[in-house]
Amino acid sequence: MKFTANTRIGIACGIAASVFTVFSARLIHLHVAKHEEYALLAAKKHNTRQVIHAKRGMILDRNGEILAANLPVRTLVADASRMKKPEALAALVSKHLSLDEKEVLEKFSTGKKYIVLKREVPEESAMALLNEMQKQNLRGVFSEQDAVRIYPNGEVLGHILGFLNHEGKGVQGVELSMESQLVGKDGYRFIERDRVGREIVLYRGLEEEPEHGKNVRLTIDMGLQSILEEELDAAYKDLKPETANAVLVDPKTGAVLAMACRPCFNPNEPGKAQPEQMKNRAIIDMVEPGSTFKIVVAAGALNEGKVDEKTTIFCENGRFAYGGRILKDHHGYGHMDVHEILVKSSNIGSAKMALMMGGDKFYEYVRRFGFGERLGIELPGEIPGLVHPPTRWDKLTITRMPMGHSIAVTPLQITMGMAVIANGGHLMAPRIVQSVEKENGEVVLKKEPTVMREVVPEKTAHYVSQALIGVTEPGGTAAFARVNGFQVAGKTGTAQKVSPHGGYAAGKYVVSFVGYMPAEDPKFVLLVMVDDAKIASNLNYGGLVAAPIFSRIAERAARHLDLTPTMPPIPLQPAPIASTSKTEERSN
Amino acid sequence: MNTELTTPTNSNPIQIGKILCVSAIVAVLLGVGLSFVNIKNQQFAIGEQIRQTERKIQQVRAENDVLLAKVTELTSRPALQARVKSGYIAVVNITGDKIARLTPPVQATEVGTLRTAFNEVGRQ
Fold first, then answer.
1. What is the pLDDT of residues A526-574, one digit of tens each?
2. Higher pLDDT residue, A39 or A20?
3. CB B65: neighbour CB atoms within 10 A?
4. Structural domain includes residue A378
């Protein structure tokens, strides 16, 4: 069979066309049908997912003073597969990073693609090394952005701020409680690199911008905080107590203006601190409040109409037999009204008011003042304290609880309880976070003052307040708490320490003073609590130990807040001589 | 005599028109190809510039953050207090007559101070 030329050409073209059609079909199949699969495969081989780290938000005080910030550092990484002159590079790296040259060279010789040379390298050192490498035409070392958290005030406010762990997550304090706001969301970018490791911008893939963490503004006023810490430090050195706490609160808003504990720790070096130093005792320690608790029974009895301004209670001349035990007062008192009971801090008077109220009603007021519940401050680990219901009371409890025994509360609860009297009867929710803001200052969350409940009417609070002014006047238990130019109201507390082996520890006392100023229009409530001060037992009273510290802090706080003095100057008195007699029931 | 010109059947004349046409198409394709390569090169160069600029911005930001951290540390209260203690800076009391008040203060005491902590004396 003989084909003509045209036929032969036609056949050849047909075969070629068929072959190319098959190829084309295959190409279309690969490019269209298998696109996703192969694009992913190619991306896996050539693309790198570059993480763009989000910055953690800063923590600020109420005036914008920076309390926690980020210091940019770099992690230097080597890729041994991209090196040309490992010896020269090792010499340069060891010089700039203060590393052993031999060790560096050994690491390079492994040929690994990701070798961490050093972490937390200061920005300047890292840049100097990279610039020098560029000059000498060396390659194979890269830097990754990182940051370390710094707390410029060191130990000041350490318990409130907390610190981060090695993964950059909050461990304690605001760093933990506000973690979700502070931490940002890392961004990413798919990139391709050329053979020397440089990114090929043209082939940039999918990209997502990082979302930086938000700044958290606290209610803390660093001016007041510094005053508080300074005075607490001085007291801690002088009195050598086991612990010392102070809390300063705005009674009208519940904003915590300052809070400090001793012992303390430096959040820049959390590894050097003992667990005991890290406890924020203002919210996680329980103590028997002592006589500061008498405001609860006085307010309750007045509000329930069991007593009024004119009612007098017989205080048994200092010895009251009840439930098979003798309840004693510091001095023997006869008939006293509620005002005098608070001023003289009579245990018997307080116990009798509680008896008049009855256990259930008294317990109701204890709870209404916020004792036995978490107040919801934005700090981790807050405890509710220990308040047993009347069904679990023994016969003596109703006479012991009014004077702050048989109950355990946190220093913050005592402060907020006193704030109820200071602000006219409202229990405010304590808050330490004022707002959450974006990097540009836009407020995304603002915490408003919250009234938890109305505890007593304003009239009752006012009456108790008048009695508390008497406490700091001559004849009261806390004359040392006075501040020149201002009227101070407050209450002392002295409670024997509970022994871990049961019962009370002999000769060990938790003394406190909680008060507010100016009494007629309180700007702050301040609690000072000193646990087991190393001084003579007959001097270890709230009025002699904690009240003077209160006075010093309050005076400086008044200056800081620029409060105008409203009272004529007080003639200075010699220090009252503490009684050397020791009674079983200490009442101030 | 046959004077008519006839085209030989086996001749293969050069078709200038077609050659020019194909050459023009090839030239256009070449031009397009070269332009593509040139544009691609420019894109790479711009990409490199973008990378360098981004790096510079990142570096400036990092330096700014380092400086902010340093300023924060140097102006922190403990740092300032240490400077006051070392005598490098001094804190001078502002006297009452230098303060303009919206509300008049109470009378100064006989010693001339408006407010004195009760226990500042006791502490000495």
1. 999 999 988 887 788 888 899 999 999 999 999 898 888 877 766 655 4
2. A20
3. 17
4. yes
Distance CA A220, CA A124 (A): 34
Contact A201 B122 (CB under 8 A): no
Least confident window among A181-185, A370-374, A445-449, B86-90: B86-90
A71 touches chain B (CB under 8 A): yes
- Cβ-defined contact of A564 to B103 (cutoff 8 Å): yes
Q: Check whether residue A427 and residue A296 sit in a common domain.
A: yes
From A69, A484, A554, residue closest to B72, measured CB to CB = A69
Nearest of A177, A162, A172, A92 to residue A134 by alpha carbon: A92
Contact state of A145 with B62 under an 8 Å Cβ cutoff: yes
In a domain, A567, yes or no: no
Cα–Cα distance measured from residue A299 to residue A369, given in angstroms and rounded to the nearest whole number: 10
Put simply, the answer to whether A484 touches B51 (Cβ < 8 Å) is no
N-to-C CA span, chain B: 149
SS3 A453: strand
How many domains, in total, are found in chain A? 2
Question: Does A236 lie in the same domain as A159?
Answer: no
Distances (CA, A) of B80 to A30, A266, B90: 69, 18, 10
- Spell out which residues of chain A touch residue B120, defining contact as CB-CB under 8 Å: 552, 555
The ipTM assigned to this model is: 0.74
List the CATH number of the domain containing A145: 3.90.1310.10
The reply to whether A299 falls in a domain is yes
pLDDT of B56 strictly over 70? yes
Q: For residue A480, what are its two tokens?
A: 């040392």
In a domain, A34, yes or no: no
Give the pLDDT score at A82: 82
Residues of chain B contacting residue A143, judged by C-beta atoms under 8 Å apart: none
- Statement: residue A411 has pLDDT above 90: yes
Identify all chain A residues contacting B75, using CB atoms and an 8 Å cutoff.
152
CB neighbourhood size of B97 (10 A):
6
pLDDT exceeds cutoff 60 at A583: no
The secondary structure of A136-168 as a DSSP string is: TT--SEEEEEEEEEE-TTTTTTHHHH--B-TTS
**Chain B residues closer than 8 Å to A485 by CB:** 106, 114-115
Residue A456: CATH number of its domain: 3.40.710.10
**Domain boundaries of chain B, sorted by first residue:** 18-87
Domain that residue A99 falls in:
50-218
